[in-house]
Amino acid sequence: MAKNEKEAKGKAYDASSIQVLEGLEPVRKRPGMYIGTTGPEGLHHLIWEIFDNSRDEAMGGYADDIEVALLPGGYVRVVDNGRGIPVEIHPKTKVSALETIMTTLHAGGKFGGEGSGYKVSGGLHGVGASVVNALSTNVQVIVHKDGGIHTQEYKIGKPVAKVKQIGKTKRHGTIVFFRPDETIFTGGIEWEWNKIVSHLRQQAYLVKGVRITVIDAREATEASFADDVFYLRETGLEVPSMAFYFEGGLKSLVAFNNKYQTPVHKNVFYVEKEQDGVQVEIALQYVDDISPRILAFANNIYNPEGGTHITGFKTALTRSLNTYGRAANLIKEKDENFTGDDVLEGITAVVSVKLPEIQFEGQTKAKLGSVEAQGATASVFGEAFGSFLEENPDDAKAIINKVLLALKARKAAKAAKDSVLRKGALEGMTLPGKLADCQTKSAEESELFIVEGDSAGGSSKQGRDRRTQAILPLRGKILNVERARIDRMLASAEIRALVVAMGTAIGDVFDLSKLRYHKIIIATDADVDGAHIRTLLLTLLYRHFRPIIDGGFVYIAQPPLYKISRGKSIAYAYSDKEKEMVLKELGVSPAEISENPLEGEEAPEEETVAKKTTKVNIQRYKGLGEMNASELWETTMDPARRVLKQVKVEDAEAADRIFDVLMGTDVAARKSFIQSNAKLANLDV
Asked: In this structure, what DSSP letter does residue 318 have?
């Protein structure tokens, strides 16, 4: 490189190259740093942040009524009857406190210490409102406070004018309107009603005694949202809405999660107490199941990975049951003590802690790291649960017997598992003979297709890319594992073959790093039996291989429903709507269509058409076995053309309940669910 070129490049990087982002510019420049993602999760996070401000007022005892409404044009309206955001001039910024909160990062009353606005809080610690403001095209805040109504509007985070008083009021609280900026969010402004309802229902359980109303007014007229309207429900709008109010708090949440379960004991355990500055609230009940369900929250933020409070809870639970079991002679001297796994089998528990100064491991707040939470949780729960067992001997005996059964089953399952895997998956068991493995040893580029039956297996084996694609055909329907222990599962040849093929082992020796394929693709037929097999496989993966789903390794293949041919031209359609689009593009009239009947059906009479017209044939596929190898490759296996749906668990609690209902033993609950959701089903008859 010439000297003058080097000098030119060197001069290009000087003080003027350093970009200084002012105000809320950093948020718009790097939104993912503040809300995690610009996809649907990040979009809904905006509602959570504004709601959290209202919820924190309720947690502090200043509010007991919150309303969230979806409005026309993508707007959201959040209202509370709290103290109202301060509107007087801030001594440091020299502008209204309201403007300071809405336009300045890390400005708010959530940092603790003397004179702070909140003892405990969730949210983004003072950046929530300003981040929402930065990522919205329009925001309006209306404050009812000290007898006056004050308001300020913003566009893309900047105030349109100063805070002004627009009237008098006897109310107190805050109203926030905002509309997200569609240029920021990749999926546009598409609010998911069920997601919002589920989140806010959960929050209502966590802040007992607070009424939370959710309203879907997206189809209402904008004239309904005048400045003098406080709660939208008071206008009498006939729009979808739901209200949540739970005096029982976490006890109510446990009862809700156990709605389709059979309780082992009658009374739900509950404790709420503060120790060493940590507020601890716990509810639990054992049910006749083998899966544990523990929900963890810190300052009302869900912690899917648990943390120090869960460690304290589990330690105290194991110790309490062993101590009581020995004292009550329910655990014999010759019996070994319960382990952590034993006492967790069949438990439904919610553990919630609140701390003034909170620490999480990582940015996502998935795991609590505050050390003081462990000791406080263990102490508060251990003392209260010990008293509960003493005061409720029938419940205590039922719980101990449940855990004893788990201990015996664990030992039996371990023996059975060891007999199957001793020379098996852990030490290189030869892969199942029915598996047509791929040539590459790289898990990152390997794919496992789980197909239904020998016919589909044959076609897929012939049509696949042998280097990267493996085929595992299943014979019939696998065992429903919803209530099955590992020993019974591993007695099934089909499940054993799948476990060995995946390479991760199962149970306490599961190791995600040994997964042999980073795409596990369920490819079943597009009929009722295919859907049933797919559901059984998903139940197996969800209950015993959850990290594989969470890691994004599980997919569902989308084979085409129709093959449309006209002369030498062939197109595939993956839905009825897509079929109509293809036919429309071909300019086909109904008279030109010849439906290719399924086996066993009578062929329709073909209508006569003009000789110059080329007949259009539509073949309706019912199974992968109906396709030849080249068709299967073109439509379902070719990475360049296929359609795969990634399996994700966005709401673990809801997923858990659905699996309980659909795959459990409660026939009445399953019948009720099917009847309630029948209209939503896409039936192929």
From this structure: H
Give the distance from CA 266 to its chain's centroid. Answer: 30
Cα separation of 204 and 389, whole Å? Answer: 29
Q: Which pLDDT tens digit goes with each residue over 586-645?
A: 777 666 665 554 443 443 343 333 434 567 888 888 778 788 899 899 889 999 989 899
Q: Is 56 a catalytic residue?
A: no
626 catalytic residue (yes or no):
no
Residue 297: phi and psi, rounded to 5, are -140, 145
Q: Which of 181, 437, 452, 494 is catalytic?
A: 452
> Positive or negative, the Cα torsion across 568, 572, 578, 579?
positive
Tally Cβ neighbours within 10 Å of residue 432: 16
Active site residue 437: no
Catalytic annotation, pick one of 153, 182, 529, 595: 529
> Which is catalytic among the residues 56, 525, 592, 634?
525
The residue annotated as part of the active site, out of 288, 445, 527, 578, is 527
What the block records as the tokens of 52 is: 């959290």
**CA 346/CA 659 separation, integer angstroms:** 15
Going by their DSSP bridges, the two strands 616-620 and 593-596 should be labelled as parallel
0.85 surpassed by pTM: no
What structural domains does the chain harbor?
Answer: 25-244 (3.30.565.10), 250-417 (3.30.230.10), 432-558 (3.40.50.670), 573-601+608-620 (no CATH)
Which element (helix H / strand E) includes 195?
helix 193-206
C-alpha pair distances (Å), 336 with each of 78, 323, 333, 386, 518: 55, 12, 8, 20, 40
pLDDT tens, position by position, 28-63:
788 878 787 888 989 999 999 999 999 989 988 899
Return the half-sphere exposure (C-beta side, CA atoms, 13 A cut-off) of residue 264: 22
Task: Determine the Cα–Cα distance for residues 504 and 648; give it in Å rounded to an integer.
Answer: 20
Neighbours of 422 (CB within 10 A): 11
Contacts of 384 (CB under 8 A, 6+ apart): 269, 271, 273, 282
Residues in a beta bridge with 482: none
Structure tokens at 267: 């009374």
Provide DSSP, 368-388.
Answer: B--HHHHHHHHHHHHHHHHHH
CA 663 to CA 131: how far, in whole Å? 42
Does the annotation count 64 as an active-site position?
no
Write out pLDDT tens, residues 352-393.
999 988 888 865 678 999 999 999 999 999 999 999 999 999
